[in-house]
Amino acid sequence: MRTEEEVKKVLFDEEAATSLVKELRASFTNGKTRSYDWRVTQLKSMLKMIDEREQEIVTALRDDLSKPELESTVYEIAMLRNSITLALKEIKHWIKPEKVKTSLTTFPSSGEIVSEPLGVVLIISAWNYPFLLSLDPVVGAIAAGNAIVLKPSEIAPATSSLLAKLVGEYMDSSSIRVVEGAVTETSALLEQKWDKIFYTGNGRIGRIVMAAAAKHLTPVLLELGGKSPVVVDSGINLQVAVRRIIAGKWGCNNGQACISPDYIIIAKSYAPKLVDTLKSELEKFYGKNPLESKDLSRIVNSNHFTRLVKYLDEDKVSGKIVYGGERDITNLKIAPTILLDVPRDSLIMSEEIFGPLLPILTVDKIEDSFDIINSGTKPLAAYLFTNNKKLRQQFVSTVSAGGLVVNDTTLHLAVHALPFGGVGESGMGAYHGKFSFDAFSHKKAVLYRSFAGDAAIRYPPYTVGKLRLMKILMTGSIFSIIGALLGWSKV
Known about the structure:
α2 crosses α8 and α10 (238-249) packs across α11. The protein is of the alpha/beta class. The radius of gyration is 27 Å and the shape is globular. It is built from 19 helices and 20 strands. The model has no long low-confidence stretch (mean pLDDT 94). Keywords: Membrane, NAD, Oxidoreductase, Transmembrane, Transmembrane helix. This is Aldehyde dehydrogenase. The chain crosses the membrane at residues 469-488. The active site is at residues 223, 258.
């Protein structure tokens, strides 16, 4: 016999989705979510939720991904806590209308930009950081004053179930709801008219989301991914660089992160030293048998395990493994694996890896690396290790990516003053900090005028003199206007 919760899940179809959106839209329309007090109360409730239920969150992440407690605590819980704390500190400033200068054309007048909530928004999150990537966008949506539906990833079922439970207990269910499920439920949600859709995941599903949104002219924010490159120059502290690469690759969910280093580019003459240092540091971190390490997450499911093995077993790639390659299908684990000089037309170089495999490409001179990066689709992140100021400037000016980091990896994610988002096929739109608030707000232009200063030149009959003065008024300065009035201008 099905439990009540199972029946609810089965019954969530297009009709149920329509009813849910109608209910949330009524809550939004009555102005409940717009109030400053509601926004602050919900953010504080979310903060209380993670403080009181932290151990449950860690357990769910371990169940879904075998994620080490440190990674769960730092990269998911603490980062979310920081986002909430920042929003609570800054929200009064964020919602305040922004004064702007006006021009002579509208004199006398004043203007401002008013941030208003978009309405009812849908957030579809990813499985690799299922707690952070679910609730971090919700922070921005709440701060902006929206009603929200969150659809967690079914690929991380323990976290999805916990999110539904905790959000139901701690948050205002009249305005914030969680819908669990897979394709059927997501499809039902995508049939609805939303005021914005925020999706985190891969490009294939991103295209489906965008196509569904187009039916209603719904704006979208897509956080996708791509092949994030690491360029390693010579003449650097290689040990520090390698440790930071390892932290960004295997220390971030065992490579299952959208901004994980996807491949390295290095000068051929310097590659052996890089490989030796990678081997040495990996052994220090994860031991001689990394499959037994408790500090590495497992591959999320058998489908992704099979996909990664397919990359490794391709004929043109299998002989390129210089470290690792061990696998444990029973426990869905693959050891950190380094591959040297893989062909650029191989599967591993044509698709985002999203796992513990790290190919290394070699070039004759390091400057050639930028051409390789720019020949592919634009990545979500790109990294450079160098002490060369000219190379750094070239990297920043020529490489197009969602974000760049020099002499480290992934840390830009933690800087709330920086926007986080993609470009091209790695996504559109950005969030984090104030950018999250802006992502879920409409910037409404407001101009205030009095009844004084009504100018006759606006109105018919249109004369040559009016035309001359209007031209100067629209394009000139106060001195040009005075000159025109005195007959000095020939316009």
